[in-house]
Amino acid sequence: MALADATAFPYGLRVLVVDDDPTWLKILEKMLRKCSYQGWNLCFPLSTNCSVFTVMSIDGETSRVMKGVQHGACDYLLKPVRMKELRNIWQHVYRKKMHEVKEIEGNDSCDDLQMFRNGCEGLEERGLFMRADSDTMRKRKDVDKDHTDQDSSDGATVKKARVVWSVDLHQKFVNAVNQIGFDKVGPKKILDLMNVPGLTRENVASHLQKYRLYLSRLQKQNEERILGAARQDFGHKGTSDNLNLRSSFQEQSGNGTTGFQHGSQKIQAQSNMLDPHLEDTKIVVPLKVPDKNGTSVSDVIDPQNVTSASPLGGVLSFDRMPVNQDRKPSETMILECQSWSGSVPPKQFMQYPKHNRERCDLLGDYSCLPKPDLEHPITPSHLYAPPQLVSMSCSMEGDARDFSDVKPDVLGCMKSLSPALMCTVVDSVSAQLSDSVVTSTNSDQKFSSVEGLSSAKDCHIDQARNQAPLLTSEDANIICGTDLACLPDDLSGYQLQGIGWNSIDLFQCNDVMMLNGLQNNWYDDPELSSEIMEFPLLDGCLFA
DNA sequence: TTGCAAATAT
DNA sequence: CATATTTGCA
C-alpha cells in the first residue's frame, strides 16, 4: 500500500493524500497554501514546478493523509491536520534534503540547495518549520512548551476532536444551567459546574447558544399553539357530542359565548407567560410535585434557584392512569399526546450522533415511530388498538356539582402525573378541573359519561400556586385537559381531551410521549422515571 | 468573558 | 443540503 510519499523536490514537497473527500482536500490545500514561502510552495496550484498534490482513494481510508514517510513506515494523520503537522512533514523534507546534500557534498553552489535552505529558514521564522539539528530543536522545545507533549511523542498532533453533545453531557449542561439560574448563566460558570475534562468554555458557549436558540424556538411554537388553541376554543362547548373533539376543534371558527370567555382569558394568561421581562429569564423547571409523603420528586433542581418559568412545555407521564373505574388498575396507559393543531413538528428529538448510536437505543428508534396523525390517531396495531376518544372539557363556571364518583379518577389521573411531571410554572396553573362536560365518544363503552367535575381547587395540583405567581386559579380560568390514549384490555383506549395549558403543552412533546408509551414503562420505577424522564424527554427535544 | 454570526465540518 | 460545531470578532 504505497499510499503516500513525502518527497522533497527542489522547490517543494510532494504529498500524497489518501483521501478523495473534496472538502478535505480543500482544507489541506488551504493549509499548504499558507505554508508557501519564497517559492517553497507545498501545494499546487500555487506553483507548477513545486508541489505535487496527488489524490488517491483508498478503500475505507478516506480520512487520512500521510504525514510523512519514515523509512518506509507510514504515519497517518487524522484530519483535520494543522500547521504543526505540516511542520512535521517539512522536517522529513528537510532531513531528506540534508541527506542529499551530504551525498553531493561540496556542491554548495547548487541553486536548488540554496533555495531550499532559504525556504527552510523562512518557514522556520514563521514557525512552520523546525530545523532538525539538535540546537534549534532544543530552543524550539523551550519555546513551544505547550506543544512539546504532542510533538515529542509521535508527532501526530491531531486537532482536538469536536465535542459531541451526548445526552449525558447535555444533561450535565442543563443541570448546570438550572443550578446557576437562567439569568446568570455564562459559559464559564457552566463549564465550572459541569466539570468535564477537556471541555472548553467555547464548547459550552456554543452549546449554550444553541440551547437558547432552541428555547426561543420552542417558545414560539408554544405561542403559536396557544393562540391557535385560543381560537379553537371558541364555542367548543357545543361540540361535546362530537366523536372526535379534536378534529372538531380544528374546524371550529370560534363562536359561542362561554368559549369566547375561555379563549380571551387564555390569551391573557398567555401574555403573562410570554411577558418579555420573563423572556430572558426562562428556565427549565421540573415542577416539584410532592408525592404522597410530601417529598419532592425532583432532586436535581434547587428550588431556590428556580426563578422563572420555562418556555418548555410540560411533560406529563402517565402510568396506569385510571380513566374510569371499570378499568383495571394494572392497565398501562399510553399518553398519546398528539397535537391537535397539527402544527407541531413530529420530531423533536435530539439527533444523536452516529457514533453515539447506542444512546439511541435508550430511546428506541424514534424515527420509526408513526407520525401523529389527526385523522388517524397513532395506533400501532401490534401494540394497542385504536384509542377511542373521550372528550372532556372543563371550566370553572357553573356549580360545582358532586361528582365524587368521578373525582377520584380524575384526581388519580393528576396524581399519577406527579412522578415524572415536568411542568412549567404556568403550565402547572392550568391543572385545574372544574365544571366540565365529558362525553363518551363511544356509547357502548364502559366509560361513564361524566357530567362535571369538582371545583377547580380540588383538582389543582398542590404546588402549582406556590410556583405560579403569575396566575391565580381565578385568573386562570382555564380548561384543563390531557390527551390520552390508553392501552386496551378488552376495550380500546380512550382519550381525554380538553383545552388548556396542559393539553397545549403536552402536544409539543407528542412523539416523545408516545415513544415513552411504546417503550416499556420507564415510569414503573419511580426513581428511574424521575431521573430518566427529566432530561431525555424535555431536553431530548433540544436538537429538533 | 460573552454573545453573535460567519465559516467550516459532518 | 441541512445542521451542528468551531472560529473570529466586537
Task: Provide the helix percentage.
Answer: 25-40%
Q: What is the count of helical runs?
A: 19
Largest sheet: 5 strands, mixed
What is the CATH homology-level superfamily of the domain at 14-103?
A: Response regulator
SS class: alpha+beta
What value does the average pLDDT take? 42
Rg value: 32 Å
Number of strands: 10
Task: Describe the fold and architecture.
The structure is a single chain. This protein is an alpha+beta fold. Among the domains are: 14-103, Rossmann fold; 167-225, Orthogonal Bundle (Arc Repressor Mutant, subunit A), CATH 1.10.10. The chain contains 19 helices and ten strands. It has helices spanning 22-35, 83-103, 111-125, 134-143, 145-152, 167-180, 187-194, 201-233, 245-251, 257-273, 276-279, 357-363, 407-417, 425-429, 456-459, 464-467, 501-507, 510-518, 526-538; strands at 7-9, 12-18, 52-55, 64-70, 73-78, 333-334, 390-395, 435-440, 485-486, 496-497. The strands form three sheets. Strands 1, 2, 3, 4 and 5 form a five-stranded mixed β-sheet that branches. The protein has a three-stranded mixed β-sheet with strand order 8-7-10, with no helix packed on it. A hairpin with a 2-residue loop joins strand 4 (64-70) and strand 5 (73-78). Helix 4 packs across helix 5 (145-152) and helix 8 packs antiparallel against helix 10. The longest helix is centred in the middle third of the chain and has 33 residues, at 201-233. The two termini are 44 Å apart. Mean pLDDT is 42; it is low at 1-21, 34-81, 126-158 and 237-544. Residues 1-94 form the Response regulatory domain. Residues 157-216 form the HTH myb-type domain. Its main location: nucleus. Residues 233-269 are annotated as: Disordered. This is Two-component response regulator.
